[in-house]
Write a structure and sequence with these properties.
With 290 residues, this protein is α/β, with parallel strands linked by helices. It contains twelve helices and eight strands. Helix 2 links the parallel strand 1 and strand 2. The longest helix has 26 residues. The relative contact order is 0.18.
Amino acid sequence: MADMIFGRLVARLTFRRPPPVVGVVRLGGVIGPATPLRGGLNLSGMATLLERAFNLPGLQAVALSINSPGGSPAQSALIHTRIRALASEKDIPVMAFVEDVAASGGYWLACAADEIFVDENSIVGSIGVIYSGFGFVDAIEKLGIERRLYTEGDKKSLLDPFRPQREDDVARLKTVQRGIHDNFKAVVRLRRGHRLARPEEELFSGEFWVGSRAVELGLADAIGELRSVLRERYGRQVVLRTVGRPRGWLRRRFGLSGGLFGDAEAAAGGWADGLLGALEARAWWGRYGL
């Protein structure tokens, strides 16, 4: 009898199916190049992590934890395309879980997922393109400063802040913005088209909404938090494998983020560049009251 019980136990342990695995990739921060004081979110920094996530043993799905106010449209598109290519190649479903914000380029990233989950208070949307700058024409005149600018090619300069704004410069900028906006809208139509619940004029206006309203508009699928949704979907035994960048000793010891101590090449960029990057990042988050 004892031998029989032992044999059954061994059989169960031997043939028990391993728990399902979900790879978790965090897409956080302003999208664009990295600086000494700010880690940019770009394909160069994410390519290896995405490859690792989609090649985990026993993988059932990949979850994207998104918290980004946007940034570079090119890097947004590159990361989106890489995620979709890996998902298609591995035949793995992708789910996005929005934290504080997935706006502008951040929403572009969310559209790489087959399903988008948000918190009721998440900021979602901002499907548009923005450019901001300053004009110092009157200021340099008062200070007696003369602007000297020489170019080869009459279109080389665009919206020089030290010269009066020219209508043809604005028209050129608007043409570029329109092209990027059209590409953004095409991605949303492809990934969310059949789920969008309002006219495109409303959804593609650059407006943004809280998570609960985003679900009603079809920009997101449901209210949900990463761990809870995945446990409900794949069972309580699901294993969440977070795939992240390895951290150097100083970052592990003192909890430092970004590249100030962790990347000598980035640090060579200088404190001034890092400070400007930090201010730029602060401006991106500030657009959404964060």
